[in-house]
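ARCHIVE CARD
CATEGORY: sequence design from structure
SOURCE FIELD: tokenized fold
FIELD CONTENT:
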């Protein structure tokens, strides 16, 4: 029984989070310098209410998101660097958050609050303004934490890891 639960957990975690909807992610390989911007405008919680309702400190959390995303991104994309707009980035990335949800994860190696996120990632060439690729984010699941705030931030760290891996490999 325990072995069956283990394999179900592994197959669930192997779910494809990013889907290419436009352009080609192979263009991201060896992208060099990038800027990243997060857009929480209109984001919902559980597709039912504004994200600010359950997260009363949403603005404080949003201010920490770039740092947490960068931690995950740098872990995977060692040949790429997140910089400010004035530092000649090759690509400008906008991460649009459409929906978030959380649940209490049990029967895993680590129990706790777990946050999920849905949205889109738009990558534009800074020189031309053209869209390089558009990615759909389908249920990016962060690692569990006992605090709601840390769980929220770990979701974006996980998204950074996933995008960093795509940049490193040049494929989904």
């Amino acid at each position: 029984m325990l072995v069956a639960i283990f394999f179900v957990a592994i197959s669930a975690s192997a779910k494809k989070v990013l889907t290419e909807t436009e352009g080609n992610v192979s263009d991201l390989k060896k992208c060099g310098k990038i800027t990243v911007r997060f857009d929480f405008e209109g984001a919902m919680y559980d597709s039912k209410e504004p994200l600010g309702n359950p997260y009363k400190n949403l603005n404080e959390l949003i201010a920490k998101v770039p740092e947490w995303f960068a931690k995950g991104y740098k872990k995977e994309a060692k040949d790429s660097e997140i910089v400010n707009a004035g530092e000649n980035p090759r690509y400008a990335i906008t991460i649009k958050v459409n929906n978030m949800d959380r649940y209490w994860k049990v029967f895993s190696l680590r129990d706790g609050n777990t946050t999920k996120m849905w949205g889109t990632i738009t990558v534009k060439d800074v020189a031309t303004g053209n869209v390089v690729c558009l990615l759909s984010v389908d249920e990016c699941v962060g690692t569990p934490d006992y605090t709601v705030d840390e769980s929220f931030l770990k979701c974006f760290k996980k998204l950074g890891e996933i995008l960093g891996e795509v940049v490193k490999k040049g494929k989904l």
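CARD ANNOTATION: Confidence is low (pLDDT under 50) at residues 1-13. The radius of gyration is 16 Å.
SHELF: design records, drawer C
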